[in-house]
Amino acid sequence: MSAVAMMSGFPPADHVGVKICGITREDQAHEIVAAGADALGVNLWEKSKRHLPLAEARRWLPALRGEIYLVAVVVNPPAALLDEIVRAEVFDAIQFHGDETPEIVMGAAARGVDVIKALQVRDAESLDEIAKFPCETILLDAYNPGLYGGGGTAFPWALMNAARERYPEKRFILAGGLTPENVREAVEQTCADAVDVASGVESAPGIKDMEMVRRFVNEARV
């Protein structure tokens, strides 16, 4: 995968990165690129309301390679799915959003795949989990047992600042409850390296409100 990936990485080094997650439509993916987002998340978890089958994603995602960073979002994926993602040579990274062990996450990284580990944050003790994952990029999301993201709820942003202080070597993506109305404040309060949104810019699960997407991107770039 890394041999064919054309994007330099996410989060970007020179500005706050914006990832729009839960993309299900080709036309909206192209509109999101035009809106200036840095990354697209495609949810390959079959139980997600924003699920996009890998076979369908492989039909139109390749046209976006090099235009935007493409992230495969998985939840406790079977080995066969990980193999298929790697062989597809479509995605720039895999985001592990379930209860995956550090061994599973780093096993993917050992195959030359960029990895992002998402962790649910309930309290300060939740931040201890970060130390178990040697990957560079960590996504912090709200605590929603069994939902694995996309619930539209936030966690106390002060915990993001605590994470940055404890793990200065990491790069952090802030998720959970972000909207065009609060993302500027979130970035200012947390100095997150990137922000991630799904339900906060939707008219229905998997269907983005493009005006909200454009506002979100603009507000995140403080």
Taken in chain order, the helices and strands follow as EHEHEHEHEEHEHEEEH
Rg, rounded, reads 16 Å
Largest sheet: 8 strands, parallel, barrel
The 3D shape can be described as: globular
How much of the sequence lies in strands comes to 15-25%
Instruction: Measure the end-to-end span.
Output: 33 Å
- Note the quaternary state here: single chain
Mean pLDDT: 92
The percent of residues in helical segments reads 25-40%
**Low-pLDDT ranges:** 1-5
Q: Biggest sheet, strands in spatial order?
A: 1-2-3-4-5-6-7-8
Q: Quick one: how many beta strands? A: 10
Number of helices: 7
SSE class = alpha/beta
Set out the fold topology.
Elements: E1 17-21, H1 26-35, E2 39-43, H2 54-60, E3 69-74, H3 79-88, E4 93-96, H4 102-109, E5 114-121, E6 137-142, H5 158-166, E7 171-174, H6 183-190, E8 194-197, E9 202-204, E10 207-208, H7 210-220
Helix pairs in contact: 1-7
